[in-house]
Design goal:
The chain has helices at about 70-80, 130-135, 140-145, 180-185, 205-215, and strands spanning about 1-10, 10-15, 20, 25-30, 35, 65-70, 95, 110, 115-125, 150-155, 160, 165-170. It starts with a strand and ends with a helix. It contains five helices and twelve strands. The protein is globular, with a radius of gyration of 16 Å. The longest helix has 12 residues, at about 205-215. With about 220 residues, the protein is α+β, with helices and mostly antiparallel strands. The chain has an eight-stranded mixed β-sheet. Strands 2-3 form a two-stranded antiparallel sheet. Strand 6 (about 65-70), helix 1 (about 70-80) and strand 7 form a beta-alpha-beta unit.
């Protein structure tokens, strides 16, 4: 299990969401990248130095500090979309190899390289920017149906990461709430929502969604 590439956003206009810019255009960088806790949502800060988000309401902050997506899943989408997808094409900060990102448990911790420890917090929910970026009509629906969302991670221990760093799973919590299950519960399979509360590390916003929908 390793990091294939570390990807940083290049700001570009965002006509798909009515915002001044988007950082979804992520591209691999050479050398080490500093990773640190960005603090609360609302500032545009994320975990990787040199990167940021522009949708301050829905992205960034502690619970969405780093976004990881598996190269194996990108390869699968390449076959379906009929076009190459470079590392970073889905807006991910880390493109991984040999790591079951969607099967990771909420609260699972990964050591990357010698310094950094990240904690799995929640799945990525697709938005209009993602669909516009890929120029694929119906993409949000197709991506949701596939339930291969990739994972957002918190920064537990800061440090530097770089391409080819090994990834080691150093903690797995005692529940069965995976990234994929969480995604299905929050999107298509509402009957799964009560199961999410077993994951203490689920973001407070997601827990509130579970409680609100359960009481509706």
């Amino acid at each position: 299990m390793k990091v294939l590439s570390v990807n940083i956003g290049h700001p570009r206009p965002n006509p798909w969401k009515g915002l001044s810019a988007t950082g979804i255009d992520k591209r691999p960088v050479d050398g080490p990248v500093a990773v640190a806790d960005p603090g609360p949502k609302g500032t545009g800060a994320v975990g990787l130095a040199g990167d940021r988000v522009y949708d301050l309401q829905h992205h960034g902050g502690f619970d969405q500090a780093v976004y990881a997506y598996a190269r194996e899943d990108l390869d699968g989408w390449e076959a379906e979309l009929g076009r190459p997808l470079a590392n970073g094409a889905f807006g991910e900060n880390l493109t991984t190899l040999g790591l079951d990102v969607n099967g990771a448990l909420i609260g699972e911790r990964w050591r990357i390289g010698s310094d950094v420890v990240l904690e799995v917090s929640c799945p990525r929910i697709p938005c209009g920017t993602f669909q516009g970026w890929l120029q694929r009509e119906g993409w949000i629906k197709r991506f949701t149906q596939a339930a291969r969302p990739g994972a957002y991670l918190r920064v537990i221990e800061p440090g530097d990461i770089r391409a080819a760093d090994p990834v080691e799973i150093v903690h797995r919590p005692d529940h069965d709430v995976t990234v994929a299950l969480t995604f299905r519960a929050l999107t298509l399979d509402a009957e799964l929502l009560p199961r999410l509360l077993a994951a203490d590390a689920l973001p407070a916003e997601s827990k509130e969604v579970v409680r609100r929908r359960a009481s509706a």
